[in-house]
Amino acid sequence: MTSVILACSALLLGTAAVSQAADSPQPGDLRLFYQENCVRCHGAEGTGQDSTGKGLRGQDFTDVKWRKDTTDEKMVAVILKGKFFGLAMPAYKSKLTKEEAQRMVTDIIRVSEKGKIIQPPRK
């Protein structure tokens, strides 16, 4: 009887882990998240040079010096906590995990290039 209970518990835990992994945004989904949440201030290319981005002083992700001088940890913290109590940039801690925010930094922000739009892959 104990073996059956342990087996069922293991199965339930495994199912929950797979379900959680399936719910976690994949890199293409993070690009869609960027388009839906970040583009209005940081621009389609990550340059922050459109009218809204300039007005709100959206960071230019393509600025090589800024990328060199800013740590991943700081970028992740800003994504999760926002800036100036959410007035300058909203906090995304309720929408992204720390791991997803880290992937935003490494897979999107750190590789942004002028002239290349950040967009989800075509299906």
What keyword list fits this structure?
single chain; mainly alpha; 123 residues; Cytochrome Bc1 Complex, Chain D, domain 2; globular; 7 helices
* Biggest sheet architecture: none
Shape: globular
The chain-level mean pLDDT equals 79
CATH top level is Mainly Alpha
Structure notes:
The chain contains seven helices and no strands. 57% of the residues lie in helices and 0% in strands. Helix 2 (27-37) packs across helix 7 (98-109) and helix 6 (72-81) packs across helix 7 (98-109). The chain is mostly helical and 123 residues long. The chain starts with a helix and ends in a 14-residue tail after the last helix.
How is the topology of this model organized?
Layout lengths: L1 H22 L3 H11 L1 H4 L8 H5 L8 H6 L2 H10 L16 H12 L14
Helix pairs in contact: 2-7, 6-7
Summarize the structure.
Helix 2 packs across helix 7 and helix 6 (72-81) crosses helix 7.
